[in-house]
Amino acid sequence: MAKLTRFALLVALAQVAFGASLYAQGTQAQREEIERLFENAPDQAAGNSRPSDLYPIEWDEDELPATLDKRKDFTYSFGGWARATFTTFDTVLDQDRTLRDYDVRVWADLNFQQHHRLYTRLRSFFTDYNTGDAPGGKSDNWQRLRVDQVFYEGQIARVLGMEADTDLNVIAGRQFISWGMGAALTNVVEGLRVNGRKGEFGGEFVLAKTLHYNPDFDASTPEPDNESDRLFVGFNAWTTALDGRKVYAYWLLQSDLNKYEQGQQAWDYNSQYYGIGTQGSIPLEIDGLAPNAFSYRSEIMLELGRSQASGGGRENVVAYAWMTDIFFLPGDALPFESRAIFSYYFGSGDQDRADQQSTIGGNRQGTTDSAFNYFGYVSTGYVLAPRLTNLHMLRANFEGQVLKNVHPWVREVKAGSAFYLFWKHHSGTTATDFTSNEDARLLGTELDFYVDYSAATDLDIQLRYGIFFPGSSYVRRKARNFFSLSMSLSF
Fold first, then answer.
1. Do 390 and 357 touch, CB atoms closer than 8 A?
2. What separation in angstroms does the CA of 302 have from each of 40, 297, 305, 347, 425?
3. Domain CATH number, residue 284
4. Which residues contact 470 (CB under 8 A, 6 or more apart)?
């Protein structure tokens, strides 16, 4: 057993050395892709496609779609955007990486009788690294034309002429889903989503599968391109009957369809997520501030399941997480539109894991796996960008609309900054940054800055900069930097 454990750790260290140059690239690529998904998710009535949609659509009588005798049989729209991005950043081993990427997407939106919709989006993507910076040594990569999203959406309640306080919507196909506060599941998946509402009560059912070419969270799998096949089944119930606050609860099952085995070692991670969340306003009365100046959202998650231990054997998974955001809208108290966000996020870790995410070097045989691993996305900054595993995080974010319509070429300028404090749940192991291997809790602090400049209705420029200062969890204490500049042209 000891020989197997030592062998597993040696293999894990070899993988770390091989994958060090990929860590920051993968983190940066995932964060930027999720940002694009959030920014450009098509509006959908069946569920909350955008994280800013706190409540499902509720039709007023005068806002209901046209009746059968007045509505148009067929309407359509189409468009797209092209985005060029320059990025340079420091990796966990103090190496600089520089790349340019070009993202082009075109979409068509077809509607029949205003209640049946077909949305299609195609994507082409090109990445160009500086010599020696690319994963695997290949400096450029062209992702040929690919179907990014394609789904049918039907507003069944409207077709059947149900009352205005009743919704029944169906979306089937390749679509973007963000579940709860985003940790359990946030991605483009293929499957079925059914959303219903009656008055102040509603629910949602999801049956979906990951796209095969999406990377898996376990980088130690023997799959050469780290591609993944996982199935999701989930239910979500919610109500707004409690003094206007939204309260929800969900269950999400994740089934591992990847089948990998090498000798005694198998790769198999099956999990279930139980979540309870709430969001609404905070009733504080402060002179000069609107009654709804403060609001919140919070979610508690329990993860149960079975995972493969490093060296072989299946063990139980028992993990948990907690996320809370407090929003402050100063309103007229400041001369420009602004908001502040204060956050505390936590995800449990496993103290006997050398790697919080991987099977090789992961959970020790004969012990419960308490590392919180998930299939969504949680925003944790630009530079360190850790996953919510073996992590405590505090964030203070302030942003404001500093300019608006002051010139034909200055439609809007929004600027913001965020401060992060990170520390580990278990000090004797790593966070998802494998170099945080000192027996100490402090991971460090990070400062991020961003500017969004809307030059015209179809031209946007975005700047991102971050700097991370490693704490006592690291041997290497050199600050790491991240810089990104992008331009988007819509058409």
1. no
2. 30, 17, 10, 10, 16
3. 2.40.160.100
4. 436, 443, 444, 476, 477, 478, 479, 480
Q: Would you say 451 and 425 are in contact if contact means Cβ atoms under 8 Å apart?
A: no
As a whole number of angstroms, the distance between CA 1 and CA 150 comes to 49
DSSP string, 241-264: EETTEEEEEEEEEEEE---EEETT
Please state, in angstroms and rounded to a whole number, the distance separating the CA atoms of residues 147 and 354: 38
Which residues, at least 6 apart from 469, have a Cβ–Cβ distance to it below 8 Å?
444, 445, 446, 479
Read off φ and ψ for residue 33, nearest 5 degrees.
Answer: -65, -40
- Residue 153 CB neighbour total at 10 angstroms: 24
Cα angle: 443, vertex 445, 451; to 5 degrees: 140
Look at strands 391-407 and 185-198 and give their pairing.
Answer: unpaired
Beta strands in 136-264 (DSSP E): 140-155, 166-179, 185-198, 201-210, 230-242, 245-256, 260-262
Output b/e per residue, 183-202; b: 16+ Cβ within 10 A: bbbbbbbbbebbbbbeeeeb
What pLDDT is recorded for position 219? 80
- Are the C-beta atoms of 64 and 164 separated by less than 8 Å? yes
Please choose, from the candidates 429, 426, 420, 397, the residue with its C-alpha nearest in 3D space to the C-alpha of residue 468: 420
pTM, to two decimals: 0.86
Is residue 440 within a helix (H) or strand (E), and if so which, with residue range?
Answer: none
Token representation of residue 385 = 């960008």
Query: What is the count of structural domains for the chain?
Result: 1
Q: What is the pLDDT of residues 70-126, one digit of tens each?
A: 556 889 899 999 999 999 998 887 788 899 999 999 999 999 887 899 999 999 999
Domain ranges, residue 358: 2-490
